[in-house]
Amino acid sequence: MASHRRPKQPSRTRVTVLTTAAAAAVALSSQAANAAPSEKPSKDEVKAKVDKLYEEAEQATEKYNGAKEKQEKLQKEISTLQDNVARGQEELNELRDGLGSMASAQYRSGGIDPSLQLFLSADPDNYLDKASTLDQLSGQQVEALKKIQTKQRDLAQQRSEASEKLKDLAATRTELGKKKKQVQGKLSSAQKLLNTLTAQEKAALQQEEQRSNRASERQVLTGGKSTPASGRAGAAFAAAQGKIGTPYVYGATGPSSFDCSGLTSWAYAQAGVGIPRTSQAQANYGTRISSMSDLQVGDLVFFFSDLHHVGLYAGNGQVLHAPRTGTNVRYESMGTIGGPFMFGVRV
What is the DSSP letter of 293? Predict the structure, then answer.
């Protein structure tokens, strides 16, 4: 007959633990349900973050520009070296053919001079060091041998130099790719932040920027306190003025789009003056002006401690520049650039 036992009851301790855990779970669920949603960043907070990202993008842009300029320079140097090597090889072949003609003439007249025979069968680069005497060769032959030796050494040096520059070019292309990714990453992050704004917030930011632009333009046109531009600076400034409203595009040098140093280098090129491509290099091209009160219209003006932003002084505390992605070439107060004025340069 089967036995009937009463089922074992859970201990009081176990019941207490389970009850406490259940209560805690209910409490947490209640808190999660009642918790306020995370606050959306304000329009001004988004703008501050976006401006910071644009500044970082511009820093990367100037490094990108430097790498691109180096790449183009290396490509030209390599092309020149390769052309020189090709021409040098042709000249070397002609010299060897000429020496061969001498050997043929000697053979027809009774045999090849032993010294010339040694040269033709050995490495001509070190032949003159190995030959026991030059007295056995004619003056014409000696001169031909020396030319061949010199040409071979020149070619070896040029080939070595070209090889090193090719390695440098490969490294520069790698760096260029990295800088391009950095710029694109910063711009992508900035765009994502801007996409969090409502249409009304975006419109408000645009209106604020337009009011600031109009105020800067009025200051330039009606201020009348700064030394007017003249000569090359005047021509460069006039060229830049003709590009007001042209969009900013990183790495661009005009004429349909610009970045900051692209605008300044293009403007001075229109005045017949070639200045370096990057803002850091432009900072060392001309006479440095430390005081803002000594600036003249058309002077280059530099901002931020690493000099990653440059524009043209427009007078009355204003700058004509290509600010950043999402903007156009415009006038702006030097006090609202986002970084301190470092110095000016008179080209």
Answer: G
d(CA 220, CA 241): 12
Task: Label the pairing between strands 318-321 and 309-315.
Answer: antiparallel
Dist. CA 77–CA 121, nearest whole Å: 35
Of 307, 306, 336, residue with least CA distance to 319? 336
pLDDT digits (tens, 9 = 90+) for 71-122: 999 999 999 888 888 888 888 888 777 766 655 555 444 444 555 554 555 5
> What are the structure tokens assigned to 193, written together?
């932040």
Does the reported pTM lie above 0.85?
A: no
| H helix or E strand, kind and range, residue 206 | helix 199-223
**How many degrees, rounded to 5, is the angle at CA 289 between CA 335 and CA 305?**
55
SS3 content of the chain, % helix, strand, coil (to 5): 60, 10, 30
- The set of catalytic residues is 260, 309, 321
- Residue 295 backbone phi and psi in degrees, to 5: -70, 145
